[in-house]
Specification:
This protein is mainly α and about 130 residues long. It contains 5 helices and 2 strands, in the order ααββααα. It has a two-stranded antiparallel sheet with strand order 1-2. The two termini are about 25 Å apart.
């Protein structure tokens, strides 16, 4: 029974820290309209950085703390803020809609590239 409770608590920690990363990134970037994309990328980044392959190729979730979740959310939100493009919302035409959609592609690609580089470099933080 103790082993099952330990696994449950660890899974809840991963879930709670992912939610913290998402909400923090969305609240930091509250002024922008793309905070849903920012939250999704914060969750993606946190989960990818928390996964490790074990000896028998099983997935192991590393239990990172709240500080790592906050740093992940802050980094993702700052990346979205760096690539921000002001779009005139008064004009309702196709070009503004296209610009607003394409502004999310640069930060998403930048975040995916950074996360993959960190995983290639075997980026790990000890849970202790």
């Amino acid at each position: 029974m103790i082993n099952q409770l330990t696994v449950l608590v660890q899974l809840l920690q991963v879930f709670a820290n992912t939610i913290i990363a998402v909400q923090f990134s969305r609240n930091v970037i509250k002024s922008l309209d793309n905070n849903i994309a920012c939250g999704a990328m914060a969750a993606f980044s946190f989960i990818i950085l928390s996964i490790k392959l074990g000896q028998n190729h099983e997935l192991i979730f590393l239990i990172h703390g709240v500080t790592f979740a906050l740093l992940t959310g802050l980094g993702v939100s700052k990346c979205f803020d760096f690539f921000r493009v002001e779009v005139n919302k008064d004009d309702n035409d196709y070009q503004n809609a296209l610009i607003a959609t394409l502004t999310n592609i640069k930060p998403i690609l930048c975040i995916i590239f950074c996360v993959l580089i960190l995983k290639i470099l075997n980026f790990e933080i000890d849970s202790n």
